[in-house]
Amino acid sequence: MMKRITSIAPPRHDYLATLSCSPYFRDAILIIPQKPVSLPARAQLAIFGHMPKWVTKLMNIRNAIVKRFGFDVGQLSVMPKNDELNVGDQVGFMRVIQKTDYEIISYAEDKHMAFYLSTKISNNAVVLSTLVNKKTFIGRCYVNFIIPFHYVIARAVIKNALNKNRL
């Protein structure tokens, strides 16, 4: 299963690259789906629309802690009415800010950081790419602290989508 999930170098000339402001964190994951995926919105919802229970519990604990430091925790459970996302739609704690036939970009921001997620369909694969612009010292500390958790949780959520045959 893990052969279907591979870390790759983040794209250097994509839309997220134009949004990066130092200091920032950027990563990308290539996913080989088990079935064809034609729309990036469907891929994003297949992955992030069904979190494993342990991830939801962990995120609730995280939210209770970081809220005290001024982070905007948003709602994890906000889901669109259908699987066709449009610019302005709320998905979890993020809002869709750009959409093309092959890529959808979602965004969330608070006073410490701006977070972007790109879900792109490319050559029968799905490429997830994140960008976090760290705006404050607390934002830099937070992102640096959670990077190991980010890697584990992102792969667990993707693996869950693959195991449940949603992707």
Spell out the blueprint of helices and strands.
Elements: E1 5-8, H1 15-19, E2 24-31, H2 40-48, H3 53-66, E3 90-91, E4 94-99, E5 103-109, E6 113-122, E7 125-134, H4 137-163
Antiparallel strand pairs: 1-2, 2-7, 3-4, 4-5, 5-6, 6-7
Structure in words:
The chain has four helices and seven strands; from the N terminus they run E-H-E-H-H-E-E-E-E-E-H. The protein is α+β, with helices and mostly antiparallel strands. A hairpin with a 2-residue loop joins strand 3 and strand 4. A seven-stranded antiparallel β-sheet has the order 1-2-7-6-5-4-3. It has helices spanning 15-19, 40-48, 53-66, 137-163, and strands at 5-8, 24-31, 90-91, 94-99, 103-109, 113-122, 125-134. The mean pLDDT is 88. The protein is globular, with a radius of gyration of 15 Å.
Helicity level? 25-40%
Described by the principal axes of the CA atoms, the overall outline is globular
Task: List segments where confidence is low: pLDDT < 50 over at least 5 consecutive residues.
Answer: none
- The biggest beta sheet, please? 7 strands, antiparallel
The H/E string reads EHEHHEEEEEH
Nearest-integer average pLDDT: 88
Question: What is the number of helices?
Answer: 4
Give the strand content.
Answer: 25-35%
What topology, given as strand order, has the largest sheet? 1-2-7-6-5-4-3
Head-to-tail CA distance between termini: 12 Å
Derived structural class: alpha+beta
Oligomer: single chain
Cα-based radius of gyration, to the nearest Å: 15 Å
Q: Kindly state the number of beta strands.
A: 7
